[in-house]
Fold these 4 entries.
Entry 1:
Amino acid sequence: MRQKIHHVLSTTIAVICATTALMALVSNKAFDPIYESIVSETPVCTAPPQVPQDCTFAGDTIRLVRYDLRERMDRELMAFCYMHSSTMLAIKRANRYFPVIEPILHEEGIPDDLKYLAVVESNLDSRAKSRAGAVGLWQFMTATGRQYGLEVNQNIDERYHVEKSTRAACRYLREAYNRYGDWMSVAASYNGGQGRISSQLKKQMANNAMDLWLVEETSRYMFRLLAAKAILSEPQRYGFLLRCEQLYPPIVCQYDTVKTSIVNLVQYAKKQGISYAQLKDFNSWLRGETLQNANHRTYIISIPTREAMYYNPKRTKPHNPRWVVD
């Protein structure tokens, strides 16, 4: 009897939550009224997102009317729409990281849309690490990171440094664009490597990577990029309803310029008024418990302010007003 009551209560709560979500969607201007009339035996109706006839990326218009292009876009839109937690996290994190990434792209002459590469690569997790060993926001492998100017060793790994890894990504993207002349081929090379994309363009006598027969991961990659832009540009259209206080605000930091070694980072953190965990959280590029600096290089260590660490969610400002409901 007790189990039956528990089951009924659980079912009732689920129905109430689903009904509330549907009412929120119906009241939203972006909600398609077609689905209001659908009769379903379940409390939630699952509908695929609409695939646009064309989309723009980095100033180029991409037509999605050909069967394969349309269906590849359809797959990635559905993947982003129904991997709810990952997509919501990306929107929340974008409020923290896009204000850092966008100015760097602008300074380096890279189109703003290329920021969505970081969404696809790491879901905007600055400490992400793949099984293959790629790490950071832009998922650099060790050799590639060093090739584009990042310090990578047992003591320092600047692939985890948000600003420096973004500038390294810009160097890669600029080099690839000079080679291909279109940003979709650049994106494909970011996933599959310039050597592979160049050889396949020649072998298959194609002008654009979107027309190539590639391994599935690279083939999907370009459309994941387009889907990421579509959903993060208009999340409400795809059913993601967030409020300002649910976004992650940028954390204000003070900066300590260091030109010597630090023997004990735990003690260093305490002197700065933060914990060792907080020091590592904001300086993931510091890989050990010491900073070895025999060559007296200049490093800048981020120290989060107390006010920023204990921020009031109600005061969070959206970087993009379209990310939140009124």
Note: The mean pLDDT is 90.
Entry 2:
Amino acid sequence: MDVILAGFNIDREALRELETGSAPAGSGPTPETVSAAYARISRNPRPVNELRRIARGDVEKARRSNRNIVFDMGHNSIAEHAVFNIDILGVSRLAVEFIEGFRLASYTEKSQRYIRLDGDFVVPAEIGDAGLADLFMETVNAQNALYHELLQAVLDLPANDSTGDPPSFIESAAKEDARYILSLATESQLGMTANARTLELMIRRAAAHPLAEVREFGRRLYDAVREVAPSLIKYTDATAFDRDTPAALKEALGKLPDPEQADDPDPVVLVHATPEGDDMILASLMQRVSGRPLANCLDDIRRLSPAEKETLMKTACARMESYDTPLREFETADLVFEAVVSASCFAQMKRHRMATIISRDYDPSLGATVPKTIINVGMEKPFRAAIRRTNDVYERIREIAPRAAAYILTNAHRRRVLVKMNVRELYHVSRLREDRHAQWDIRHTARRMVELARNVMPLSLMFACGKDAFQEMKRNRLEEK
């Protein structure tokens, strides 16, 4: 594993001073002076560019100011003015799920959909300590060998199939679907951009994590940034709240029965929706232009006829293009879904960070997702045999190192996920994930979410679809009488 500081924001004038050799002695480049200057804006009448000059002139004083304002006074948002770019290499796909679970950061990850993989994977410390490293590596190597067999079987598809799909499509399908047999121990890499406040939280949460790999990531991340911004990243030790709360909840609730079904007839369920969601959004739109209290607007909307409500909603959306987001009033209605998704699907779902996504552990009893392409090329039997073998090894690992057992599971294995989002965010999910270019697994999930949501909020979601179909849907909706 490597965690490398790739860059950070610094004052532009500091750059010029470094270029000309006029920087004050002992003042190395740091984003802390920008944070310190911005922290003083609220109480210092000087122009902000002068505040930056003052902070550059005495970095240690700027750091003392940061510590006082951020940690003693509790104005944590000041730390958000310091932004870091981080290279992260040699981490498992399982660890990536932790890293990308923080909302206020940006990530670009190596995609298993577009790159042929060479079989690199992480051997967790817990597996080695349990004396199971040989069994683990043997199983992962077998999964990787099958990956290459599946890849080749799909690449050979044009010779055996009459669909006439172009070679580029076949190659894309091969890489996209063969990866379902790869383990969550498979190595990945990503670039991350995050502010100091988020980095501190990430380091602290990593310190409390049950996986040694994640704890090691947290230590390396701290090592990468602490010398550059010592005044903004301070509280990095694990807290009892982060470390002990899950176990305490489990003990308090006891061992509740939890029957699982491998073949769920509907893997996506709408658990809750804002009552009268359409009316709430329409009332919010009315409040925007009328300035009247929302409660009064809601009463007025309820008195409208269905046709009048539809006309009002169409007016709000008629000028929207595929690249536009709905008005913010669409955030006033919420939806809560429970979904059973593969690891491959979850890898994409977790990127929608404005939603609330709460995932349970991977559970082999929920079955595994087998791509249709794998079935069509006659490789379903070896695929399922590999899944059964994986499940057997998972159980052996779980007996000795339960927290690390998930590493052996594959992209095909499933977990339960709770997803809460507002209607505006669901539009974003629909535009991106229902599009014909989207990966088929999450496309099916997104489509079902929109179908269920449209059942309870037909007006608010009348324009929800993939961006490729937006113009046609918009035209059809607006022409409807």
Note: The beta strands are 2-8, 83-92, 105-109, 187-195, 268-273, 334-342, 356-359, 414-422.
Entry 3:
Amino acid sequence: MEEEIEDIKKKLKKYSQEHLLNNFENLSEEKQKRLLEQIENIDFDLIKSLYDTTQNITTEIQDDQIKPIEFFDKEKLYDDYKKYKEIGEKAIRTKKLAAVTMAGGQGTRLGHDGPKGTYDIGLESHKSLFELLSDGLKEQGKKYGVIIPWFIMTSRENNDATVDFFAKHRYFGYEKDKNIFFFKQGELPMIDTEGKILIGEDGLIKEAANGHGGIYEALVKNGMTKKMRELGVEWVFIGGVDNCLVKMVDPVLMGIAIDKNVTAAGKSVVKANPQEKVGVFCKRNGRPSVVEYTEIPKEMSEATDENGNLIYGESHILCNLFNIDAIERMGSKPLPYHIAFKKATYIDKDGNKVVPDGPNAYKFEAFLFDAFGELDDMAILRVKREEEFAPVKNATGTDSPETARELYRKFYNIK
């Protein structure tokens, strides 16, 4: 180990990160081994590059050519509705569809101690978000005479608790490693305002999940796309765990994608108002994209057509369908990272615990929709918010358990 440590010290000195081993001697043998593994796996050139970007943060669209994107309105498909539905149903019945749920987060903002998917939104049934999602999958599987494989992306932080939760509930009728699979998303170190990698209270490098944009790489690196191919899967729905009305099995969405010969499709809901904090679908330099609410100029967000409708009004609700070829292609190259300035407790170079009063550290996240630029085109299907979008993000107010319960009860006619 001594020789290994000397090599690591040389590497750390090269990147001015020597402090990472300051408390090494005080760690248990198990933690020493884990810390060395963490350091070995860090791409220090990437970290340096990411830090450099924090010195010149911009939210401008700059010179990109942004235009509205065409979309299908599910309510106005008329004669085509049946055609698309039949195409999609045939694909589902022949076991071409798998579902992926991104569930790497904790329920901290909801006051919940545990993985967000284990949260009870307050229905009379006391079902967790995971169980509500599994109900929808099983119902659709029964309808089409198949079991739809379910892939769940966890994080290092919540993986064990998530798997234990599923085991406790007998995987809600699924069979582990046969038709339900768990895999972890990637992580990146957090750094302070001087570019130094943080050490957490456990003596290990403080890492944070790399955002939902890490889904493609995680599916490929963890062998999930290989497993999907073994199961005969061609299409993969990817959605978040916190939308209790998510429709992971939608033959119309599949039918449109197949009929239009595109490798991806996404669902949208009409933006509630120009100020709603959501990203919107668009065409960026001729390719599909999403403009985040933080980067869209006020005049663009408020622009309306001759009928008074928002020109950029198709909200991205994290409900997307991909051909497996597209996932593997997008998972083969890294996406750009976005910067978030967060409050993070850490151990300083002298071994003291520091609890900051405000944001003090950068974390880096990739966004799923940044990969859309790799696509020639994608189909957008506008759906009704009250039928398909009931997110649980905040403890109170908008997108809270209360609003989600109300939408869920109304949709399923629960008194």
Note: Residues 129-144 form the longest helix (16 residues).
Entry 4:
Amino acid sequence: MMGIWGRLFARERASDEPAARPLADASATPPVALMPEEQPHAALAGDELEECFYRFVLNQLVSTSGNTNPSREQALLHRLHELCDDDRFDVRSLPRMPAVLPQLMRAMRNDDLSGAQLADLIKRDPVLVGEVMRVTGSVTYRTAHPVGSLQHAVVLLGQIGLRHVVSSYAMKPILMASAGASGQMVGQRLWDHAERCAHAAVFLSKGQCDPFEAYLAGLVGYAGLGAVARVLDKELDGGPPASSPAFIAGCAALASHITLQAGLYWELPANVLDALAELTTLDQRGISLPLSRVLHAAQRLAMYQLLVEQGLVEADTGYADDPLAQLPSQLLARCQQDLQQNFTPS
């Protein structure tokens, strides 16, 4: 068992990844129109890609006639700042991380940790125990001999499985709940992106940063966007307005600050918090932290992949250029291909 947890978050080969999970049924609420009708699938890059993603998550339409209401948008942004800016957002309104999770995250980075020690830690959370046993009892992990103990289950889950259990148990409910009771669609879209972003972050992390921290940063990187969506939903009356790029950018900036506050509230590792902080104040001078570079590129690759799946971006345009991340374009292209193989619905 020595060293198994060192391999736990080593970059896995694409062939070892599980089959892509299908997107949730969005038939009740179809994707919003993101681009003008005469250019329904224009290739996007950089800031345009991010704007398209934010519009998709927040369900904010593009006005094809320029019929926006600047004064209303300015008033709404002012109200959002009053509620969310300068640490005014009450992070206690976000779901708490399970109490055992910070300890579990630290333990999973310990190369010398045995399966028995990790099982003892997981035992502190009965719900997590149930999730581990449920997953290892599924057809995917079924063996000739039934799983007889939690330690056996932990070893059986291995590299990919344990990571999926922990992320699904902890982060998926948080993201799904962050947008409030009426924001199930927003929460699902955030989770769909988080899965793809975490996958891409691990792929890009080799030789750059710790794979586990990259995975965790990928999961939480847009947690604040759900909170903005929740506040926005309460403040809007009569449905979502057609909104300008400046309005979307303002919402995105607020979301970034809330994500950092949430990370502190959730007691995330210091390197993850540093990366979130650097991307919160990102400018054209570039990115200095390796984890920040990986996260920035992973976020955009995941945006592109998700928008392709939704039919909002052409699948053959690609996104393999990120000068701020300073990662080789060939690496970004390979990561994009890996996302397509693992997440494109069959």
Note: Residues 43-62+71-89+171-343 form one domain.
